């Protein structure tokens, strides 16, 4: 999760700005955090930058403080609000229906402006998002326990030009991306261009490694093929020599046999260049085929 931590660290760097965006970001946090209902707000995080940001964010968005802050130090910590007056203040600010049995939706009226929509998605990722190390795989997701939110967020993302996928896991509704370029674009949109560049660089490095590995495998296969062909050719030349037929062959065939016997490691193109005068690979291949036929073996491919 180190890469996720780096992304969240980057997203927390900008200062909390205008109040509408602070409310939108806090709204995203609330819909994707551990608990958000009329009895309690509970936000659990181990991200140090988010621990510093949340009190400032909620003070700017709702003019309130948390009832409980996490203990100092590293590791997971919980932010709690259970005071009824504070909870009502949050619901009123977000124009949400008050009630213990209510089903939460995304209030799109709060996200009409692009900057507010960006802030909302940033908050959603900070509270319920994760992204894998791009050197290992490509996967970014946001998870919420609210059914309608899990259905409405993909529509919101599609309006912003993204193409998310959806699934359910352990009672949560998960919106995710598996394509590298989609992850790059979303991280840039959220306000993490450095992390987006890291994904891009990782893809380039992985593609380069894959290309090199494919070339190495191809070269290895070609080498194996060359070695096998040379072994058959040498065997044919040996049979011709042992039977006394080699010395009676035309000069061109005897030259081909000599060059192959003296240079078992070379391929046909390299042997063709050693002929006097040099010949084409096709011409040398024809000579080797003739030697193989005379020795009673199959010709090289």
Describe this structure in words.
This protein has 301 residues and is an alpha+beta fold. The chain has two domains: 2-191, Endonuclease I-creI, CATH 3.10.28.10; 207-295, no CATH class. It has helices spanning 2-11, 19-31, 48-62, 84-93, 114-128, 147-159, 180-190, 193-242, 251-262, 268-274, 281-295; strands spanning 35-36, 41-45, 77-81, 129-131, 140-144, 165-169, 172-177. The strands form two sheets. Strands 4-5-7-6 form a four-stranded antiparallel sheet. Helix 7 packs antiparallel against helix 8 (193-242).
In brief, what are we looking at here?
Helix content is 57%, strand content 10%. With 301 residues, the chain is α+β, with helices and mostly antiparallel strands. Helix 2 packs parallel to helix 5 (114-128) and helix 8 (193-242) packs across helix 11 (281-295).
**In terms of structural class, how would the helical and strand content be classed?**
alpha+beta
Main pleated sheet: 4 strands, antiparallel
Total strands: the figure is 7
What's the CATH topology label of the largest domain?
A: Endonuclease I-creI
Level-1 CATH class name of the largest domain: Alpha Beta
- Please state the CA-atom Rg, rounded to the nearest Å: 34 Å
Distance between the termini: 52 Å
**Count of the separate structural domains:** 2
Beta-strand percentage range:
5-15%
CATH architecture group name of the largest domain: Roll
> Count of helical segments?
11
